[in-house]
Each structure stands twice: as structure tokens, then as C-alpha cells.
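Hi everyone,

Forwarding the result from last night's run.
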Amino acid sequence: MKRGRAGGAPKAAAAVERVRVFIRLHRMLRGVRSLLVAVSGGPDSMVLLHLLASLAPSFGVTLRAAHLHHGLRGRDADRDLALVRRTCRSLGVPLLAGRSDVRARARRRGLSFETAAREARYAFLARCAARTRAEAVALGHTADDQAETFLLRLLRGAGARGLGGIRPVRFEGPLRIVRPLLCLWRREILSVAKAQGVSFRTDASNRNRLFLRNRVRHGLIPYLERQFNPRAREILIRAAELLAREHDFCETHAARRYRALAREEERRVVFPARRFAALPAALRAGLLRRALAALGTPGEVRFADAEAAARLCRVPGGGGAVCLPDGVVVSREYGELVIGRPPAAYPAYDYPLADGLEIPFPGGRLRFRVAVRARRGVGRVRRNTPGLAAAWGGNWNGWPLSALLSQEALEGEGLAVRTRRPGDRFRPLGAAGGRALKRVLIDEKLPARLRGAVPLLARGREIVWLPGHRIAERFKVTPATRRVLEVVLERAR
């Protein structure tokens, strides 16, 4: 444990005032009545705890602290917790403490200790915030952390969003994450600790160069300062700030474009393919991120993913797919770009046609009504053919669908309602010859995801009616027809 001594008071006071101004500048505590501060026991979080304890009354907030024991450092971690308890007691700040088996979490989920610890920490803070009804959680990241994060993300190939670095204020759902110490360097934090007598503990793992961040902190950044520019940290932070502003500008425009172009449906988001491809790359990525959020999967979209989606839009007829986080897939359906999770395969069925027969269909059920009438009582032959894409793609409200068929031509083998089979052929009314059913569905621009779900009226291998399209040529009603079979397909209530 290190305990500071008095000294450097003017500089410490100036640093405290900068934090106060920084909080107000970014409106960190606007509307916040209860604030939770994450405290590890290290210098950054302990100084943050002391500063917020002194500033809380002027901002009108109630302060609580939270500490998670990760179970990784044995007695050292126990001593961290003991110090945090004593400090909170002396400051009059209530403490919420918890424990987590990070090793087990990492083993169970195949994560590094660093990633598992971070996940456990954020989950713990979210629970504590909910328990205390805290509107915001304060974290102790510093300007040095910002410079390190910029380099780490640069090395990982991040775009403008990632290179924008650590934000002073960030929202995770309704929870506000604030970082009041981003305006201070680590050396200033230590000066404040020394001047104000703040006790803290040093985690020996922070010097372990097995961790990439530590190699950047203790190796790469000092090398850049020695060999290239002694102000390298400041330059990195300035670059992060500029990229953050550019990203925010693009996000504002992406939000407007999303409202203008996106069509949100159940389990998917649809964009006009041509208009999506015409957008700048940064806006395309922004639209894809919003589509993921609409599907309940907020996640990062790589530049390569946005470019691949644009290429799908430019390929005639579509083809291929782009995989996004959480099983979300980007695909092309004729003139539209579709972002969603692939539906489960539709079950095949084969039912004898009967009045009142109900069959499954995505989003509900369908019912058949069947009647035989005399030809003279039918009147004018009606054709209810909205087109397959309109009828089955969800853009048509003219249900029911109906067909009039020659009963004489249907004598013999019974009729069945079934899904399509390999090798199915169809000769629509008015066509000169038969064609593969697959080709008919493609020419009608029916999306591939729906082709296996469309019900067919068939007699053996012969298709009698393709609902939404046409009846077969040889079952049409003619002047010689005496009896007519009327088949109506409607949505079941």
C-alpha cells in the first residue's frame, strides 16, 4: 500500500477543478440523483472516489461505491477489498462488495482472464446500479488509458467508431457510464493522491507484459515518445477526439438515412438495395449497426462487412450472404437488401384437399374453402393473381386468393395441398409449354426464403394451381365446362 504525503497542493487543486469543469462540460451528472462509483483499490479509482465524495454535494448527487473481488490474486485481492472498505467508511460512502470466479468464467466461455474479468465487472456494476437505482456509474479511466486504447484499437484494425476511443459519457441501455478522470494524466492522479493523502494499492499484474495493454503502456508508447515525439500521448488523444467527432457527425446522418430507407419487419430489416449501395461507406456501416440494434443485437460492424453488403447490392440477382454478429445475415432479395436471422426450414406437408383444411404458414395459418357449382351459375371467370412476391411477401392485403377449375378435367386422382418437391413442373394458364416450378418462382421474384412455404394445389405430380399466380392451362374453365370447382384460400382467424 502506498500512502501519500502532503505536497503539490496547488497542482492538485487545479486538477480537481479541471475534473469539476470536465463533468459540467460533458453534462455527466445532469439529471443524476444517485451515482455509483466503481472502486478497485488502485490509484485511479481511489482518487476518483475521493474527488466524487467531495464534489457530490455541489452536484446534488448521492454517492455509493462498488467493488468486485475477482478471485484471481488471493490475499492481495483481500487486501484491496479491506482498503476499499476502510476508505468508504471514513468517507461515509456506502459500499456494495461482490465476488466472482473469473477463472471459472473464462474456462466456461473460452475467454482470456482479462476479457472474463471485464465482463464480470460490468455485469456486477449493472446489478449494483439496478439495486441502488443509480442513474450513472463512474469509472476511473484516465487520459493515459485513452491514448493506450487508441493504439490498441488501431492495431486491431478498428474504424472511426473504435478509434474514437473512450467516451466521457456512454449509455448502455438506460444506464449512463461516466468517466470524470479522462481529463487527467496518470501522473496528475498520483499528484492528487500524494497531496490529499489518498491510500491506494498497486496491482502487480499491471506490469505483466503478457498482457497486450501493458506492452503498449510500458513499451510502445515510451518508444514513440523517445524516438518520434515526446508529446505522442497528446497527439494520440487529439486524433481520438477528432475521429470521435467525425464518427458522431456520420452517425447523425446515418440515423436520418435509416429513418428514410429502412423498413422494419418481424425478424428482419429491409433497405432498397440500389439506394443502400449509393451511400458513402461510413453511412452504410451506420445503417447496418442500426439494423442490428433493431433486431436486438447491438454490435460492431466491420468496414469489410459494409463493403461486402454493398457488393451484394451491385450483383444482378443477388447471391451470397454476409455474416454479422449473433447469427444475423445480410442477403439480397431482388431489389432489396435484407438483414435478419435465417428462418427455420419450413416443414414439408401433403394433405388431401377438403373444405375447411388449415395449413401452417409463417405468421399464422391459412384455410381452404372448396365448392362445386354448375357452370351456368358461375358467371364471369375471375382471375385473382396479385403475383407471388406480392401475395406471399407480405405486401398485399387483397386476401382471399381464389381459383376456378374445370371439374371434368379434374376427374380421377384426388387433389392434394402440398409443398414443392424437387423436379416439380408447371404449365401456367396461357403458357405454350411446361416449365420447372423453381424457374417460375424465380421469375416471379419470390424470395428464396419463402419458396418452400408456398402451398400448391396438385394432382399427383401435376400442379393444378399456384396460389397468387395462375391455374394450370389444362384445368381452365371453357364454354364446354359443365361443373366448376371453386377453391378459395384465406387467412384463418
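The domain at 262-340 is CATH 3.30.465.60 (Uridine Diphospho-n-acetylenolpyruvylglucosamine Reductase; domain 3).

Cheers,
N.
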